[in-house]
TrEMBL record:
Principal EC category: transferase
Cofactor(s) this protein requires: pyridoxal 5'-phosphate
Domain of life: Bacteria
Classification via PANTHER family: CYSTEINE DESULFURASE, CYSTEINE DESULFURYLASE FAMILY MEMBER
Molecular-function GO term, any one: cysteine desulfurase activity
Record bears the keyword GTP-binding: no
Catalysed reactions listed for this entry: (sulfur carrier)-H + L-cysteine = (sulfur carrier)-SH + L-alanine
Protein name: cysteine desulfurase
Family according to the record: Belongs to the class-V pyridoxal-phosphate-dependent aminotransferase family. NifS/IscS subfamily.
Keywords in alphabetical order: Iron, Iron-sulfur, Metal-binding, Pyridoxal phosphate, Transferase
Alphabetical list of InterPro entries matching this protein: Aminotrans_V_dom (IPR000192), Aminotrans_V_PyrdxlP_BS (IPR020578), Cysteine_dSase (IPR016454), PyrdxlP-dep_Trfase (IPR015424), PyrdxlP-dep_Trfase_major (IPR015421), PyrdxlP-dep_Trfase_small (IPR015422)
The organism of origin for this protein: Aquisalibacillus elongatus
Keyword presence, Protein transport: no
Length: 384
């Protein structure tokens, strides 16, 4: 049985070129980049080059990149760091109901500390209304944090409109771009983004490394104390091995982005067509139009299915998918994203599956996935 991996929104395998780059670092650059001797300087050079690569990838400045252990730490630094730095000006924060838990949980913690958080609703396609953002703004609003692309349904928020609105008001704007970084061309200057989160392991790089972009001049309080690394915003010896892998993953991404996007579009279209050909009953969660949706994530509702039983049977048949964020794996709670879209009584909360595509997937695999879904649904229907 051929196993088919369709959970790339959770994590991606490491690209061969990334492995090679990391092996080179292990052999040649083991020095501490804070050391002044030859070995330290060699590591510092690699670190500086990686920082420049990250900055150029989003049209940011070299000193705007803060390396972190991943998206969660970057989100925490952005949210807590901005809130604490500006609490003398107010205590109001705006976010949405469909954020990743690496944003929602920090916001909930800040509420316990006396901050006031507004959780904006979304429509049935998972999109926030720019007028809702505007109407939620207050004189004491000190941060707005809204994700670029949702990790469960692949919907793109109106980031540029939000950025323009907030820049005109002088309010810091953070976006979790972990799912967007691999499929969207991002220009932080054009989009008026003040803080942006990215992660390596979503773009065929190693786990345990990410970055936070911080616009020059933005007030941010450090969350980790120790040495002077990352301009004191993130103390601790830099993970030069993982950073070099991240750098190579970004370089490969920049060369292949258009090709990858076209490939993901074909895979999504092929899977939908294969399901249609087999007359499988399903519904699409979200809006698949290109202006609203990224092509590598497809969230489908299968009527009459129980998602836990369905996922188990898919895994046994060799198909790896998920019901949402990998950070909630094992949870019996329904998706908070789908709840915000359809209401807490909607059956879609209990029968939806996320398919997320990768470079190595093929159109033939989409046919095989549709076959296996058909067999599972027929078997479960007979048992009922």
């Amino acid at each position: 049985m051929k196993r088919i991996y369709l959970d790339h929104a959770a994590t991606t395998p490491i690209h061969p070129d990334v492995k090679e780059a990391m092996h080179q670092v292990m052999d040649e650059s083991f020095g501490n980049p804070s050391s002044i001797h030859h070995f330290g300087r060699e590591s510092r050079k690699r670190l500086d080059e990686a920082r420049m690569t990250m900055a150029n990838s989003i049209n940011g400045h070299y000193e705007s990149i803060i390396f972190t252990s991943g998206g969660t730490e970057a989100n925490n630094l952005a949210i807590f760091g901005t809130a604490y730095a500006n609490q003398d000006q107010g205590n109001h924060i705006i976010t949405t109901q469909i954020e990743h838990h690496a944003v929602l949980h920090p916001c909930e913690q800040l509420e316990k500390e006396g901050f006031d958080v507004t959780y904006l609703p979304v429509d049935e396609n998972g999109l926030v209304d720019i007028m809702d953002v505007k109407h939620a703004l207050r004189k004491d609003t000190i941060l707005v944090t809204i994700m670029f692309v949702n990790n469960e349904i692949g919907m793109k928020q109106p980031i540029q409109m939000i950025g323009n609105l907030l820049r005109s008001k002088g309010i810091p704007f953070h976006t979790d771009a972990v799912q967007a970084y691999g499929v969207e061309e991002i220009d932080v200057e054009e989009l008026k983004i003040d803080l942006l989160t990215a992660s390596s392991h979503k773009i065929y790089g190693p786990k345990g490394i990410g970055f936070l972009y911080k616009r020059d001049g933005l007030n941010l309080i450090q969350r980790q104390y120790g040495g002077e690394q990352e301009r004191t915003f993130r103390s601790g010896t830099e993970n030069t091995l993982a950073i070099q892998g991240f750098k190579k993953a970004v370089e490969v991404l920049q060369q292949e982005r258009d090709e990858r996007i076209q490939h993901y579009e074909r895979l999504s279209e092929q899977l939908i067509q294969a399901l249609n050909n087999r007359q499988i009953d399903y519904a699409i969660n979200g809006d698949l139009s290109k202006e609203c949706h990224v092509p590598n994530i497809l969230n489908l509702s299968f009527e009459g299915m129980d998602v836990e039983i369905f996922l188990t049977n898919l895994d046994l048949s060799g198909v790896a998918v998920s019901s949402g964020s990998a950070c909630t794996a094992g949870s019996i709670d329904p998706s908070h994203v789908l709840k915000a879209m359809y209401g807490e009584d909607s059956p879609r909360l209990r029968n939806s599956v996320r398919f997320s595509f990768g470079m190595d997937n093929t159109e033939e695999e989409m046919e095989q996935v549709a076959d296996r879904i058909e067999n599972i649904m027929n078997r479960l229907a007979m048992n009922n």
